[in-house]
Write a structure and sequence with these properties.
The protein has 7 helices and 2 strands. By secondary structure, the protein is mainly alpha-helical. It has one domain: Up-down Bundle (Four Helix Bundle (Hemerythrin (Met), subunit A)), CATH 1.20.120. The chain has a two-stranded antiparallel ribbon with strand order 1-2. A hairpin with a 5-residue loop joins strand 1 and strand 2. The longest helix has 29 residues. This is DUF1993 domain-containing protein. It comes from Sphingopyxis indica. Pfam families: DUF1993.
């Protein structure tokens, strides 16, 4: 259950983010918006820039799986400096997620999960409350923030870009005709 709630969701979100970044890079080239402008762009002065949002999205997927029992996660310790770096972080994360064993994640939904933030705040949860109340909200917060930064910069992204993986479930003959 925990595996199904996390790993496929991380794969879907990161794959969609990769596509959004491709679209942003192409749009930027056509509209004189350089990579460095995107890398440094943020929604508000006290929010992290796009580079950090991409980094944190990957880190949340890695931390979520690791705290649930998956060993050997790569360390993504710094923000990327360009779109190639963004894509490399995403590819590294996706590559590792592909190796995660469902049994390691699902072994006991009531087992304790504890963690301490860099500011010293410590949390004690069960695996299922960790997924519901921390891992998923944190992952999606940074995923949405990255999407929102690109939208803020003018990239013509829409819901189909955010949930591109949903096309696999589309009932034939129900897509709108342009």
């Amino acid at each position: 259950m925990l595996y199904a709630m996390t790993i496929p969701a991380y794969v879907n979100g990161l794959t969609a983010l990769s596509g959004q970044l491709d679209k942003a890079l192409a749009w930027g080239a056509d509209n004189n918006v350089g990579e460095l402008q995107f890398v440094a762009a943020r929604l508000a002065p006290d929010m992290f820039p796009l580079a950090s949002q991409v980094h944190f999205t990957c880190a949340q997927a890695l931390q979520g799986a690791t705290r649930l029992g998956a060993p050997g996660a790569p360390q993504i310790s710094e923000d990327a400096e360009d779109f190639a770096g963004f894509q490399a972080q995403i590819a590294e994360t996706l590559g590792w997620l592909d190796t995660v064993d469902a049994g390691a994640i699902d072994r006991d939904p009531d087992r304790p999960v504890d963690f301490t933030l860099p500011n010293g705040m410590a949390f004690d949860m069960t695996a299922v409350t960790y997924v519901r109340d921390w891992a998923q909200p944190q992952f999606y917060f940074h995923l949405v923030a990255a999407y929102a930064v690109m939208r803020h910069m003018g990239v013509p992204l829409g819901k189909p870009d955010y949930v591109s993986y949903m096309m696999a479930y589309l009932r034939p003959g129900t897509a709108p005709v342009a």
